[in-house]
Amino acid sequence: MAKLPCPQCGNPDVIGTFCESCLRERSPLVSQVREVKLTFCSRSGEVKIANAWERLKPEEAIRRVVKRALVYAPEAKIERFDVGDAVLPELLNKPGMRRRIEVQVIVRGRAEDGLPSDYDEEYGIPIIIETTISPKHAKAGSQYFEAIIQTRNEREAQREALRVSAARRDAMINKEEPIKRGKGGTDYYLADKKTASIIAQALHERFGGILKHSSTLFSRDKQTGKDLYRDTFLVEYPDFDVGDILTDDKLAFRVGNLGKIIMFENLTTGKKKGATYEPGKFTKMERRETTVSQVEPTLAVIDPDTFQQVAVQNTKTQDLSPGGKVTVVKLGELIWVVP
């Protein structure tokens, strides 16, 4: 039985009832195009998608919302899209800007199972671009804070690590208050307590020491009636650094690395052991310069106080020669060569 031509265009080459061209026209890959909106923070570059602020490049943010703008066939997908210069970076730095752009999208797939192969269709997606200042960054430079990170025994490396960590997470440090009393350090006032918690834990993971957390009621939300709390994170760093020589009044140890588990090397045996930080357990030993007096049958140096020859406690030391200069530490009459 001969097939009837396409009832829409008369083409005799049909697939079922219609020809391929008319099938594609009757069943497009995209059945609906919705207008969507993107809101950028002009201070941070973050973008609001749905109800959450994220740090994304404009192209990636547009790609995300384009997927939400289209209702397309199950077997179809976005092949590529072209933003062009519709969103210029300098425009995103101006709060209060509003612009309607159109992004060209190529969708590839098949809307009908009977069609012989995939094909492309092009669509223009309308997107509203707005700029504002996100709630978090609106608090920058103000006296507002939700959390305090209190650092103690702080050194420059840890101070820099905190600032880098805050910058990486776009955290607002609205105030830094140096603390000179006690163990010294800095109180950092941050606008977001969740980010403060992440930073405090990261510092503890990297440098070790003690981490404590407490919350204080400071207000009540008038709209929800919920109590509002400020968080305080105390980060007390170890009072020593990598390479320092410590003593527990019995033996001498070299600090190998810092972290929640600190690695200590026993200078007498050369064995290494990990342990958590215990305040006051160790005392930092003073490094002294002296001279090697002999290497055989045992290594000995000149005591920098008595000027007598003394055998060192190390069982493993680097290659030394008589008359050479060496760094040592002393505990009573015991002497160790510093690696």
Structural commentary:
- With 339 residues, the protein is an alpha+beta fold.
- The chain has a 6-stranded mixed sheet with strand order 6-5-4-10-9-8, covered by helices on one side.
- Helices cover 15% and strands 41% of the residues.
- Helix 4 crosses helix 5 (193-207).
Short description:
This protein has about 350 residues and is of the alpha+beta class.
**How many helix segments?**
5
Write down how many β-strands occur, each being a DSSP E stretch of 2 or more residues.
25
**Helix amount:** 10-25%
Largest beta-sheet characterization: 6 strands, mixed
Structural Rg: 34 Å
Supply the number of structural domains. 3
Please state how the strands of the largest beta sheet are arranged side by side: 6-5-4-10-9-8
How far is the N terminus from the C terminus? 97 Å
Strand fraction equals 35-45%
- Element string (H = helix, E = strand): EEHEEEEHEEEEHEHEEHEEEEEEEEEEEE
Low-confidence stretches: none
Q: Which whole number gives the mean pLDDT?
A: 86
Quick one: overall form? Answer: elongated
Structural class: alpha+beta
